[in-house]
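lol forgot to send this yesterday, sorry. struct tokens for the thing we talked abt
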């Protein structure tokens, strides 16, 4: 049985959302962050050598990394799903770009900013501030061009992007009143029953950060 190990307030919410969109069976185990440092508890760290979210287990398999997990789940449980457009599809390259850009660049920008703040920087280094600003500009521009990051329909690119646009913002306090395309997009995401089910399971009692 596929088991999704979700560390609360982390990007492992993506995997639950994916499973709900696919309508596949899975077990969900919730883990709460430590109160002293807000990091994962020891039982979560013991799941995988990296000690970070996300992690799934499936029989004897233990697998980390959001993209690897999504690719594995689709290949095993939902081959041919429209959540992953094939080569030749009109949305293939846009989907591919944002699917990888989400973690490789966009979330990395946010992590650099977080580290700078953790180290006591009174303001972000210029190159970090520039990368962060460019990232949010790309988000707003893309959502003015298409309904979804992957193109005309929801894809795993949107599921990859979701955490940084919602739960991560809830922790940082960032507002998006200056990003109307993003606000409209998140309203559409919030109406999806699969997203609603996923977030209710991942963060019980915490409304998703959609505005």
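and heres what i got for the seq, position by position
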């Amino acid at each position: 049985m596929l088991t999704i190990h979700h560390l609360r307030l982390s990007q492992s919410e993506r995997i639950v959302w994916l499973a709900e969109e696919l309508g596949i069976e899975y077990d969900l185990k919730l883990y709460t962050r430590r109160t002293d440092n807000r990091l994962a508890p020891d039982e979560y760290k013991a799941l995988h050598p990296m000690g970070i979210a996300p992690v799934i287990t499936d029989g004897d398999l233990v697998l980390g990394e959001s993209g690897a997990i999504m690719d594995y789940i689709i290949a095993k449980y939902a081959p041919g799903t429209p959540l992953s457009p094939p080569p030749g599809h009109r949305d293939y390259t846009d989907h591919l770009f944002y699917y990888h850009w989400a973690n490789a660049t966009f979330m990395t920008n946010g992590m650099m900013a977080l580290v700078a703040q953790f180290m006591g920087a009174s303001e972000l280094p210029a190159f970090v501030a520039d990368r962060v600003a460019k990232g949010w500009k790309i988000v707003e521009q893309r959502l003015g061009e298409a309904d979804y990051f992957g193109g005309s329909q929801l894809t795993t690119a949107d599921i990859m992007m979701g955490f940084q646009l919602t739960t991560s913002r809830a922790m940082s306090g960032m507002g998006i009143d200056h990003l109307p395309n993003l606000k409209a997009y998140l309203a559409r995401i919030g109406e999806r029953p699969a997203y609603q089910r996923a977030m209710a399971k991942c963060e019980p009692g915490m409304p998703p950060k959609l505005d």
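The CA atoms of residues 127 and 133 lie 10 Å apart. anyway ping me if u want another try
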